[in-house]
Amino acid sequence: TQLLEQSPQFLSIQEGENLTVYCNSSSVFSSLQWYRQEPGEGPVLLVTVVTGGEVKKLKRLTFQFGDARKDSSLHITAAQPGDTGLYLCAGVRRDYKLSFGAGTTVTVRA
Amino acid sequence: DVKVTQSSRYLVKRTGEKVFLECVQDMDHENMFWYRQDPGLGLRLIYFSYDVKMKEKGDIPEGYSVSREKKERFSLILESASTNQTSMYLCASSSLISYNEQFFGPGTRLTVL
Lengths: 110, 113
Description:
The complex is a heterodimer.
Chain A: E1 4-7, E2 10-14, E3 19-25, E4 31-37, E5 44-49, E6 55-58, E7 61-65, E8 71-76, E9 85-92, E10 98-100, E11 104-109
Parallel strand pairs in A: 2-11
Antiparallel strand pairs in A: 1-3, 3-8, 4-5, 4-9, 6-7, 7-8, 9-10, 9-11
Chain B: E1 4-6, E2 10-13, E3 19-25, E4 31-38, E5 42-51, E6 54-57, E7 64-70, E8 73-78, E9 87-94, E10 103-104, E11 108-112
Parallel strand pairs in B: 2-11
Antiparallel strand pairs in B: 1-3, 3-8, 4-5, 4-9, 5-6, 7-8, 9-10, 9-11
């Protein structure tokens, strides 16, 4: 069962442009995480958001957790080629396991 | 630097073979996990272990078993490999305190012919 829906599935933009990736669910999660995975590597945790309405910034990346703790977004400002990768959201379930979205493949062209 | 290592990056096996995937972590983590990653499906939890010799089924345990004889090592076993088990397999670990901060290995791409 895919509990988390990510959109879009693929995103290709020019260096310097902005982008937003969405993660939606009908379930409430205690917290939500965003990972980035580069080719040939495992996912690396970027951030965990815990409180409904929370906004966290990591340099040019802004993460937001929905008020109802069912959805989240990742916004990248002035994207760079180094931002290229697969972005995955993951919800922390009541049984403390993670449910992952299918991922958004982001390509930033130089 | 914290590290999760997996025994093979690429593996090709035949249908019916018994397959062992090994994972080792050097962070003294209590929790260890096995996921498979397929396009369009994301990561799905196969099994996890919260202590030596302890294991619990994840969301898709059918066709798999696991072994954890030592704290740092977690093995995934495919008793009789089938073509639908062709996938990327990822191992992860986390501490008891920060249980949802998982550190992943580089993955093993398994092809079953």
